[in-house]
Amino acid sequence: MKNLSILTLAAILLAIPAGAQPEKQPGKLDIDLKKPGAAIQPTLYGIFFEDINYAADGGLYAELVKNHSFEFPVDPLQGWKAFGKVEVRDDGPFERNPHYVRLSDPGHPHKWTGLDNEGFFGIGVKARETYDFSVWARVPSGGSSTIRIEIANPASMDEVHFICQGTITVKGSEWKRYELKLKPEQTLDKAVLRIFLWGEDRTTVDLEHVSLFPADTWKGRPGGLRKDLAQALADLHPGVFRFPGGCIVEGTDLATRYNWKNSVGPVENRPLNENRWEYTFPHRFYPDYFQSYGLGFYEFFQLSEDIGSEPLPILSCGLACQFQNDSTMPDAHCPVDELEPFIQDALDLIEFANGPVDSKWGSVRAEMGHPAPFNMKFIGIGNEQWDTLYPERLEPFIKAIRAAYPEIRIVGSSGPNSEGEQFDYLWPEMRRLGADLVDEHFYRPYKWFLSQGDRYDNYPRKGPKVFAGEYACHAKGMKWNHFYASLLEAAFMTGIERNADVVHMATYAPLFAHVEGWQWRPDLIWYDNLHSFRTASWHVQQLYGQYRGSNTLKLTMDGVNVTGAEGQQGLFASAVLDGGKVYVKVVNTSDYDQEICLNFNGLKKNESMKAVGGVRLSSPNLYVDNSLEDPERIIPEAFEFKGAGKSLEAKVPACSFSIFILER
After folding, report:
1. Which residues share a beta bridge with 533?
2. Is residue 632 annotated as part of the catalytic site, yes or no?
3. Model confidence over 199-221: pLDDT tens digits?
4. Which of 125, 222, 594, 627 is such that its CA lies 20 to 30 A from the CA of 40?
5. Do 126 and 187 meet the contact criterion of CB atoms below 8 Å apart?
6. This model's pTM is above 0.70
7. 3-state per-residue secondary structure call for 48-105
């Protein structure tokens, strides 16, 4: 972690409820077993993917080659180093990716023609594992030509740079796909892919869509997902998966919004898209941050199915990012009377996900390898839009989707803020339009999370349900992952759980970040080219998902909900029923240990509750997190919790998140 100044530490400590431990009896938490409360939706705890921080290319999408189709707009060879005689041409075999390279004899027997690819902050490979190289190629004059492919270490002190190599003979003037398996002899986190025009005659050859994947991908799918990152999602057991993002759905302009139709079909013909985050932060600027669409909507739906979550795709409502296109730029957005193509995109997506194989878009899904429908139930229209511009565009979407697919549940938005003028305006509008869920976003500091334990206690019980679609604790002056921020997220989530009749979905954000390519933090999962780690916030999310339960149970202290309110000594709590088990979650945000008494009401005369164990997340240092060097510094630990009776006493250490497990 960073070094903190004395003043910064003082400010942090002032944010924590402090003081000597009060002299008082154990806090009594009354848990009512007489009547289970609201059903907890399977979608309550989920994940949200946005292509920020190199989350797709360079992250979850396991492709190791940057700019694999030579389509980066300013420089088609960005990410490549060319040597010898290399020409970029634009009449290739793929309509939406027309560029390719021509490698020709450099004109001297001791000169060489070829390319190096730098990958994403280097190419990470592991010793003795297999990597699948592929390329579309031809010999324009006919006949044959040879290329040599290497995974190399240019910084090596060995006699040779390459750590593995092989050759491919390209034959004929027609474009064909060629494959080669490579097995490095060393582990490297910053290798390069090197291609030589090879052989004695060095006949001119054309190359298009150069690709390198680990063979060991998620589910073993060729051209698939990075295994450790996908597994980190699966281990959360998420109930809902929101994709492909928030702001990238809008785009810096409409021309560069995320277009789902460009993200399906053969990967070689998915066009490059500008990433909205490429230009956002000049203080953390990445001029090579594009979207290859190799990770597209088909792969998102497939991943949702793999990890058992409901897919929740988000589509543009015809508004470009309003943060980047203010009221002085009215032409940035699609006029309401010209929305038909955007609305049709939404209808076509539902057909792609759910339609029969003989429908236009259902057949595309089937051709990609999934004839069965994905059974999509939710769709989101728009992201963080606000003002009258949003409801007037959302309304025709809702009418069209309701008419064609009345079973689909529609997610609207309350804008980019957790409260305030736009929030207060948009919620009534979502009710008026009949949205099924309303997406709330809040990246907020310590004090906000400490004050919001009762946020949903007084929400209307009828009407649209809440989707807490993007949230994370952002400490002022230290917006990096650390345990105390995760603890306050856990405290806030007791209120989400207690109000499961109002909140049907919740997803932390952002999901992924490359340690050398981040623009936003904190994030749930961090990684470099070979390794990854799960943050304390990841463990908070995982614990809530693992101990989700089926129904809420009423839990109070002195007759009121336990929300960290005045007099509750920094405690937040909730309880759920799971068959014959009860899970009681208690977050102690104070800086002292506390004794509590779990008092169970509604038991029969001879009945009692049996304590069977507990699990706790804590850290002796509040301002550190896990890291690549120490990925398990902060992980949940089981603790002994035993006994039986109608009341059981327990201890909750200072600044800890505890789950008490009991059986009836």
Report:
1. 526
2. no
3. 888 999 999 999 999 999 999 99
4. 594
5. yes
6. yes
7. ECCCCCCCCECCCECCCCCCCCCCCCCCCCCCEEEECEEEEECCCCECCECCEEEEEC
